[in-house]
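re: ur question from yesterday

yeah so i grabbed the chain u mentioned. its 119 aa long if i counted rite. heres the sequnce exactly as i have it in my notes:
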Amino acid sequence: MLLNIGFVEAYKIWKSDCVIFHDVDLLPETDWTLYTCPKSIRHMSAYVDKFDYRLPYVYLIGGVTAMTPEIFKQLDGFSNRFFGWGGEDDDMFNRSVIFLAIERIYETLLHIKYNIINT
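ran it thru and got these structure tokens back, copy pasting raw so excuse formatting
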């Protein structure tokens, strides 16, 4: 729910052509990370140290995800059925693959790796 509220309120102030949802406990390993949007959804955090730089499961798009505001609106945002940690990213993946391809950053930009902060 907070992700949707954040989008709505931020979009009132600044009409950006790119929206990036970023977990606060993920830090890029280098300063070369480009935060940009493709024409589809981009899962930017496919490489995370905690998971030995591999996806824990194929339908993961959480962590750091970029998309245009139009795509976010088309998907009707994140589900409000989830509170706290987990589930909303998987739900977003399930709804988005119906309409769009999910772009993952693999071989093209291998320098985009993230460290997770232990809390």
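noticed a couple things. The longest helix spans residues 2-13. also The longest strand covers residues 19-22.
anyway ttyl
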